[in-house]
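Hello again,

I reread your note about wanting to compare the complex against the isolated chains. To keep things tidy I'm splitting this into two emails, and this first one only covers the full assembly. Below are the input lines as submitted, including protein chains and any nucleic acid or small-molecule components. They are followed by the predicted structure of everything together. The single-chain runs will come separately.
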Amino acid sequence: MCGIVGYVGRRPCRDLLINGLQKLEYRGYDSAGISLLADGRIDTVRAVGNLANLRAAVGLDVEGGDGAVAVAAPPATIGLGHTRWATHGRVTEQNAHPHGDCSDDVHIVLNGIVENHSELRAQLTSEGHIFSSETDAEIVAHLIEKHYSGDLTAAVRQAFADLRGHYAFAAMHADHPDTLVAARQECPLIVGIGAEETFIASAIPAFLAETRIALAIENGEIVTVTPGEAQVTDAEGNPVERESDEVLWDDEAAEKGGYATFMRKEMAEQPDAVAETIADRLSASDRVDLGQVEAALTPEFVASIDRIVIVACGTSYHAGLVGRYAIEQWARVPVEMDIASEYRYRDPVVSPNDLVIGITQSGETADTLAAMRLARERGAKVLALTNIMGSQATRDADAVLFTRAGLEIGVAATKTFTCQVAAMYLIGLWLAGLRGTLSDDRLAELIAEMKALPHKIQETLDSVEDRVKAVARAEHRGRFFLYLGRNIGLPICLEGALKMKEISYIPSDAYAAGEMKHGPIALLDDSTPVVCIATDSPILDKVLSNMEEVRARGADVIAIATHGQEKVRDASDLVIEVPATDWVLQPILAVLPLQLLAYHVARMLGLNVDQPRNLAKTVTVE
Ligand code: AGP
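Full-complex prediction:
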C-alpha cells in the first residue's frame, strides 16, 4: 500500500506534492520521491526512510530551502510524488519512485502490484530497454515509452492493456508540461479539481487542503488531467461522463479519510489490504509463490518439516489459530499454537525439523521476538509474518513474509488481522503445493476462491453494517458478551471477544461451543447476548445444537451465517449473513461483523476506539 500524488496547474508544485505525500504517509513510509517537470526536463529526488528524509533531500527544511529540484527555473508547475511500502525490490533510493523510462522522458508513480512484471521485463529488455530498479513498477514507464508516439493518453492506454494486477499509476512526459495521465485497476485513485489546477492522488486527504472538488476514478478507467480539467475514458478510449463531488470533511475527518475514527477507516481498507497481500503471491492459478521466503525455506526443508509451531500475542495469536486449522487441513502437517509469553518460559522441546512461525504485525512485540529467538537458538527454522519492513522481527527470522496492510493507527488491530489470516492461508496452500497433499484441482479451486476474497470482504462490509448497528443498539448496555464457535470458527470468537473487551471494556468471553455444558452455560440468562459463528462447515449441525442449548436458557443468539443457509435462521434470534466461500476461508469474512459490533457498541458508549484505555499499539515491554 503506497501513496501516489500528482499536480498540474499554475502554482509551483514541489511543496504541494510533499504536503500531499505527508497526508498519505499512513499508506507507506519506507522511502519516497518526487519528480518535477520544467523547461522540458524532469528532475527527480528520492530518499530512503520517511518523508522527513525527502524534505531534507529537496532542502525544504534547510535555511533558504532551495535544495536540488527547488532551483528549477521557472519553478515546476507539474509533478509526481510517491511514498512507498516496498513489495518488489529492497528499500533503496534506486527502488524508490518516481521511475523513469530509458531517456527519463516518461516518469511514473504506482501504488499496487504488477503481477506479470517478470515476463514484461524480459520482453522489454529483449527490445533494448534498460532498467534501473528492481521494482515491478518501473515496467510501466518503459511500456509507455514503447507505445508513445506523441499522444500520452494513448500510450498509457496501451500500457494499461499490457498490465495484469492490482494497481493505480500516474504518468508524466517531458513533452507534455500541461498533462498528467493516470489509470486504475482496483487500487484507489481520485482526482482533485481546483481553479486552473488538478491533483491526482491515492486518497482525498492528499489535496483536501487545496480543493474540495473530487472526482472518483473507477476500475478500468484512465483519466487525463490538465490545469482545472479532467477527462475520464474507459479502457477502449470511450469518454466517460462523471460528476465530481464536493468533500465536506474537516481536517480531522480528512486525516481519517472521511471516517469518524482510524479504526473504522482501517476496517474499510481491508479489501485493498488483503488484495495487496495476496495479489502477486497468487498470480499463477495453480500454485502459491512466496518469493523470498522460498529462498530460505527450500522445498527440501519443507518436505522435511515434522511440526509447525506458531507463536504470537493478542490478535496475531488468533490469526495463527486460523492458520493452524488451514495448514493442518490442507498440508497435513501437525501444528502447535502457543502464546509467545508462555512459549518462551516453558522450556519448549525444539527440533531442527520444526518450522516456527512468529506472527507480529508491528514486528516489535517483545514476547513474540523472544519466542522466535529461543526457537532459532534451539535449531528450528523461523518464519516471521509481519506488517512492518525493517522491524526487529525481520532480523530475528530466517525468512519473512510481509502482510501489506499499510500503517495501522487504531490500537485495535483490524486490517492487519485479516491480512495475517490471508497470509496464513497462503502459507497453508504453499505447503500443500510443495508437499502434494492437495489435488491440483482442489489447489486451483482454493486459489480461485482466495482471489475472490477482497470483493467478498467489500460485499460483507457493505451489507452487514446496518444489522450490526441494530444489534449494538439493543445490546450496548449489556454486562457481558459471550462468543461461541467450533473448529475454525473458534479463533474468530476469540478475536470478536478481544475486540469487544479492548474497545468497549465490556467483559466478554469466547468458548468452544462444545465446552458450554461443561461450565460456562451457567453464565447465561435472558440478558446475555451470545454471538455464534455458524458459517457453513462440516460441523455446522454441532454448532446449531449448541445454539439450541443457549436459546433454551433464554439468551439472545446472534448468528454469523453463510449467505442463504436457512437452517441457521431457526436456531437463532438474529442472523447476520456473510458471502459464501470455502468453509476454511469463511473466518476472514465472519470476523468483519464482529469487528463492526465491537466498534459500534464502543461508539454508542461514547468511548475512544482509536486509543482505548490501558493499551498501546505495540507492546515492546516483556
Ligand atoms: C489487538 O487489537 C491488540 N492491539 C493486541 O492484542 C495486539 O494484537 C498484540 O499486542 C500483538 O501485536 P503484534 O501483532 O504487533 O505483535
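For quick reference: The chain has a mean pLDDT of 93.

B.
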